[in-house]
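Form 7-S
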Amino acid sequence: MAEMQPSYDVVTLGETMLRLTPPGMRRIEQAVSFDIEVGGSESNTAVGLVRLGMKVAWLSRLTNNSLGRLIANTIGGYGVDTSGVVWTDHDRVGTYFLEEGKAPRGSTIIYDRANSAISRMQPSELPADLFQPNQAKLLHLTGITVALGPDAAATCQTALKLAKAAGWRFSFDLNYRSRLWTPAAAAAGCELFAQAADLLITPLGDARLIYGLAAQLTAEKVLEELAARYSQATIVVTLGKDGALGREPQGQIIHQPTFPAEEVGRIGGGDAFAAGLLYGYLQAPPTGSSKGLATALRWGAAVAALKYTIPGDFPLIDRAEVLRLMEQDNTKPTVNR
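Output:
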């Protein structure tokens, strides 16, 4: 008898907002109109995974009005299963304003997300029938959702507990947001998730902030500090323009350079990297050798590079173009010995 395939490769949970951006590099105070995009860390990753050919469900809580339906319809339109979204006639949809700038004027973001519907999601609103054995391979969460408030944090904790009980793997992206909580609060709030992670992802700067690591500590030393704390996890530290480092439990550190890209839209790049990384991780899970992790890192770097060429938050990439980019030889991963 053929083995039953899971209904989903990945299930994720989080907030998605509406992004309003003045066109033509205008300042917000100059704006006479705004371009609207839909975006949120977990749904960005979900869309990227679907574009790579995976089956993904996105869980959230949205206000039952035109704004909430715009978000759900957009995400669902890219093939992500949104049937697990909880709808409410109360609360609100979160928004944020992006003022794009070029050097020497940087881009600015103004968030308007307090008391959003997802921040008040209850553990009882999770679809219990989803969190069963063989329903999914992996649950993916980020520190952003945990930071939204005690209700959202409790919902994430319950989702993790249910996923582990069902035998799923678990990936966690620290994804620190200074406007949501302090480094100390993030360290405490994320600890349960980091301790449970099979795959732990963090930008280098976030790891230094959250764990109080010295700025002069090298990226390799930061990764080793994390590996000592979370010895059960495959750990990936992203380095911006310098690529990413990865390490399996008790394994060697692998460095993946970036693929050259002409930047058009940076927002969502980290989520795109996570999508590629998760795709490679699930396609060829690390098994103690460096090959599986090296492959996953390369997928992550390639998807992120392509995302930078695309405006908006979603990595609207094609698997074939990712493969073509990966065939280039100038960014082969190396093992740090």
